[in-house]
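Margin note from the TA: students keep mixing up input and output lines. Inputs are the sequences; the output is the structure of the whole complex. Example:
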Amino acid sequence: MLLGRTANGLYWMNRYIERAENMARLIDAGLRMALTRNESDAEEWTSVIMSSGVEAGYRSKHDEFNAANVCDYLLRDIENSSSVLSSIETARMNARMVRTALTRETWESINDAWMSFRRMLSGPLDEREVPKVLDAIKRETAQIRGAFHGTMLRNEIYDFSQLGIFIERADNTARILDVKYYVLLPSISWVGSSMDNYQWESILRSVSAHRSYRWVYDAAYKPTNIAEFLVLSRRMPRSLAFCYRMIDDSLEGLASDYGIRHPSHEMCADMLSKLKAMRIKDVLDEGLHEFLTDVILRTNRLGDQVARDYRFF
Amino acid sequence: MVAFDEMRPEEAGLRNPYSEYDGWLTEQDTARLGQKMKDAENVFRRTGITFAVYGEQNAAERLIPFDIVPRIISGAEWRRLTLGIEQRVQALNAFLEDIYHRQEILRAGRVPKELIAGNVAFLPEMIGLRPPAGVYTHIIGTDIVRTGENDFFVLEDNARTPSGVSYMIENRETMMQLFPELFKRIKVRPVENYPQLLRQSLAAVAPRSADEQPTIAVLTPGSFNSAYFEHAFLADHMGVELVEGHDLRVVDGHVAMRTTEGYKQIDVLYRRVDDDFLDPLSFNPDSVLGVPGIMDVYRAGNITIANAPGTGIADDKAIYSYMPEIVEFYTGRKPILGNIPTWRCSEPDSLAYVLEHLGELVVKEVHGSGGYGMLVGPAASKKERDAFAQKLKARPGNYIAQPTLALSTCPILTDAGLAPRHVDLRPFVLVSDRIRIVPGGLTRVALQPGSLVVNSSQGGGTKDTWVLDD
């Protein structure tokens, strides 16, 4: 038994920590692209903004898509509720609210991250400092996760936290793919051009999968393999299939603890069985963009349904 | 005005309770101590032991400064203090029971009727209502000041929702982390079992309708409240839920909390929300911090509210001056712990005296707390005193006055070495089927030389308080 408000706090605390980390990865990939290309990098920064789902907010403040503006908006603009600074603020606020449900180690790691992000992001960033800041963000969030997995009891508190992490992550991976889906489509016949290579690597880099890809597939990037890796792989911790397996695990854990199933269980099971049965050819035949739009929509609905089923409010 | 120093009083040299500590201290080098002071601050910052000061922008969360020199009390001193405190809290509960029922003390003319009838801290809703187990104020923080070797006085009886107990525990925790060797050398009585005692205490006053393991919850106004850290700390250490008003609702004649599995009944509510906000149906209708209808459940005897609504009448500053009479009336004995002489400005003679001696007195608002709205005569300018005199004349009944006490001092560590600062003490008392007092309390210390204001909202700090096992 857990207060509905506590379950809600755990869920959002973890969504925002995950979001802060994903934001750092996205920017990292963007910087990399900007470094390795000669032509204008505006396109790349546009897709970074679109993948973060903050396009409208960004356009209302900035006209140009460049490294300085994008980094500032995604890292430290508090008017952007998904910026790293806003995310850690929200995560900590939720953590404070559910403090009694967290181990001391977990709370302290979140509080540490909050203190260090506020210090790092208090003033405008020198572009040369950005890589260091991104490293620090990834390190701090990794530390939170380490403290969390190392010390938290595997009970309902853990389950609601996991739901937050993997619903956020599924949404994030789906968005990154959707913004660049056309790059992966076989019908567009630039295959083999250096342009594609960069783009493909950037997708993998945004989910920190550029190394693990090579462990699973050949060193050469192939669009179908990349799509398969990020959509269907059961081993890749940021793939849609993996995220849904984790979501399902947690929902099933709750069902067996509480002895009751809810509509969210069926929604999740549906999606999971679909992902299990699919081959990447099916996905591409169905239309990658249509498929991803559907995943983003379903993932959102699933989050709302979990909130209803477990009385978050 | 020479203050009594608890470590080295002027006339007597080193006092006994400090002898072991002093021996250790002389072996330390100052650089190491300075480093320990910084370590302590980091511990507090990392664990997020902060409080909020209302009305301050940005500094939404602040640390209460912590000093690493302990305040040490001997076992014998402590025994005497506890006897006095026990007597006092018994009298407080007896007074509350009486004042909301037969009002014998008013009939006997020992406390004036007007003081109750016209008092906003007196809740008519509580008249004739008998709380479960007959206890009104379950958790009390008795503020005690010292002026000499044997002179202890009660400054305030905090019988509503006293705070600070989490600092008592965290201060000890920090000291044990910083100076483990000291605790091997000196036998200090433990305070960290307070949350367990609190839980036992609350369970012991559960309503009859509760089962053997009553469900307890801590009610907080929310994470923006200045004492939120403490609310979370206590819920956590007791292993009970920390709830907010909107988590609760009345279901089938009981107060229940909304959980991931539906509504679950609560038997005992340790509330850290003021009376006014407790039930919008009975009190402030705009409150969103409370539970609509909780007073009906309370009247039906289906929930214990700790502390009971309306306990404020017992720690009201206007009532304070009658505490010696109150203690004697209900316990049949003279108070073991004295009161500070108090002038009630509502009385014309007293008012005249206070106005004439404003430069020597501390004048307090009857309903104020936290050091706000008070005048410390000797520290105030002529202009401030004149302005205050106008307020006094306009509403004399709103004020009491007390002499400026030479509060005892304890050394703190400053950049220039040890230096004496004024302190007070808040031991925490639990009342249920019996009275429990953890050996220790919160020592608050004024950080400015000569300052008498120890309130954390006014820049005061805290110290670990040691009661020796001797």
